[in-house]
Specification:
alpha+beta; 12 strands; four-stranded antiparallel beta sheet; elongated; single chain
Length: 297
Amino acid sequence: MLHPQRSLSELPKMSAASQVERAVLEEEFNWLLKEEVHAVLKQLQEILKEASRRFSMSTPGLESQLKQENFILGSSTMDQVKGVLTLQGEALTQADINLKVAKSSQVLHFQFREDKQWKLQQIQDARNHVNQALLLLNSRDETYQFKTGAEVNKLMDAVMLQLTRARNRLTTPASLTLPELATSGLMKMFTPPMPGDVMVNFYINLSKLCLTVYQLHVLPPNTTKNFKPTGSSVLHNPGAMFELNNNRFEVSHVHKVECVVPWLSDTLVFFTISLQLCQQLKDKISVFSSFWNYRPF
């Protein structure tokens, strides 16, 4: 519909002006596809290579051997639990745990058997997702010519999906039931063997390596206490109940200690920066897309 005050002679001028504007935008968009997209991809590759390197730091002077790091969890004298954990890449290669038994001065001591190590699946999965993101980026080297914004968006979405999954693996520990904890392979790794009234769990939460120790007591068969099995959780509370091998247990004490793993902190920062770069590139593409979809006259 024509504006009442606009003469027909003005229309070709506006149309010509819009054609010039469109030509300029097309030139800018082509520059974005040809130059800027590859600059962002190169930046993403460098950041994610650094993130990947954090998962496999080598021992100085022994490049073929993964670096071993010791972490002390619960160093306060007030803590009922103290753990010294040795992390090598994605594996706990040694765990030394002291537990002060509640209501007594007894201290229980456990450590991994010499032939055992515990793989932290969260770290392994996060590393795999980072490497998948790098494979996606490597599939489009600087000689590749992107034809459309949609093609760039598709690549960014795929990279962002892998990075989000990597971050989620570190920020979301697995929820387990108490019977699953009691029967996990982790319980068979210690010497002396864990007594039946103690359970442990290791997991990553953000950049922290966490150790949880549960002390249990057996509920008498004729107990009048209302028995209600507890569902899955990352951290169970005192009073949680479960049944195993026809015995009913209740959690009497829960001890959680943790320690920051610096390279996991670095990795989470790399994920955040990379996700922001992907989103910024998508936003630039959408600015041009909104222009193509908008027809003022």
